[in-house]
Amino acid sequence: MPDIASPVPATTTPNPLAPARLGPVSMRNRIIKSATFEGVTRNALVTDELVDFHVAVGTGGVGMTTVAYLAVAPEGRTERDQIYWRPEALPGLRRLTEAVHATGAKVSAQIGHAGPVANSRSNGLPSIAPSARPNPLAMGFDRAATEDDIVRVIKAHGDAARMAKDVGFDAIEIHLGHNYLASSFLSPNINRRRDSWGGSLSNRAQFARRIVAEVGDATAGEVAVIAKMNMADGVPGGLWLDESLRFAQMLEADGHLDAIELTGGSSLLDPMYLFRGDVPIRAMAETQSGIVKLGMKMFGRFVFKQYPYQPLYFRDHARQFRAALTMPLVLLGGVTDHDGMTTAMRDGFEYVAMARALLREPDLINRIQKDLATTSLCIHCNLCAASIFTGTRCPLVVDARA
Ligand SMILES: Cc1cc2nc3c(=O)[nH]c(=O)nc-3n(C[C@H](O)[C@H](O)[C@H](O)COP(=O)(O)O)c2cc1C
């Protein structure tokens, strides 16, 4: 087991900008555009804007782009225009994968079920959670998932993975983080079940492990399979490193994954833990309506805890995973320049994932390739997070062009 204090020797440190493999996939570099819900789909179908979004990132030089959050079931969406896996969505998704491939990049599909982060009001369908709970976003309640729901959702992940493979995705990223359904099953404070899906860590982990196994079986090594998992939920009583490390070791031992992408935070209870930096409460409130909007404006500063931004902000936690695991890992969180990429490689991470810096400048990787000293223009103001329901973008870019 590698020691945290001894990074990979310089001679074996890979070049982040050189070609690499991720499971069965050859990529032109080790940079993955991490999922940022694009907010440009209508009627839960691919649009030209969605294709253009990923073509811009592909043209900009990443090794692989990730199409954000494609729900495995209609009630697992965070809003009703979000794509869920079904035959009608497939021609558009095929058009998207072909367009990205023409740029030289690979393309990954993030699949999952939002569980308590789903918006039942918008979906027009009741949302499910490990245990019944109020859902402030939907101004309603989530019902406790039944045994049938659990089996159905596990199977739906396999079906989604099969469809993703068939329409040309190179990788499947299973969303096991941010207190979406699988992550909320892992969370001791959201999962209050007394059956075999709750209680001990091995019980709480069972749902996620069964999903990963289902996806592994469905894809049979033909595409890469990645899991995005929480190292910490960031909330009192939530999943913490002691258990998330053991959970990651279970995933490694199960042997269905080509890589794990390490994240943290709760879209439900502590969203800023994901991002760090400024909290644009007013802009986020404007995306809501009625009483939710008012509530956010009045109480947002209590809900949205602020965390100072720093480059590679998940590095300290992630290095503990590097020490405990031998499988490939993706470092995420505050990677914005060549220095950060190289630090990640020296620490022994095989890939880096980047989100906000590529929203600010989709061509950042090409610019770094040309000049390694290039710095990102992203100022982690997080106004992009407030733009997700009207077409995810960096509003500073729009302002500059206005
Ligand atoms: C606008 C926006 C939308 C996001 N949507 C998703 C998403 O759909 N799925 C997901 O797993 N993470 C999502 N994230 C989180 C990012 O993938 C990433 O984990 C986070 O921004 C930290 O990376 P960064 O420091 O490179 O921005 C989103 C982030 C932003 C800024």
Automatic annotation (TrEMBL):
NADH:flavin oxidoreductase/NADH oxidase N-terminal domain: residues covered: 18-253
Keyword flag Transferase: no
Full protein name: NADH:flavin oxidoreductase
Top-level taxon of origin: Bacteria
Keywords for this protein: Flavoprotein, Oxidoreductase
Pfam entry (one): Oxidored_FMN
Gene3D superfamilies: Aldolase class I (3.20.20.70)
Transmembrane segments: none
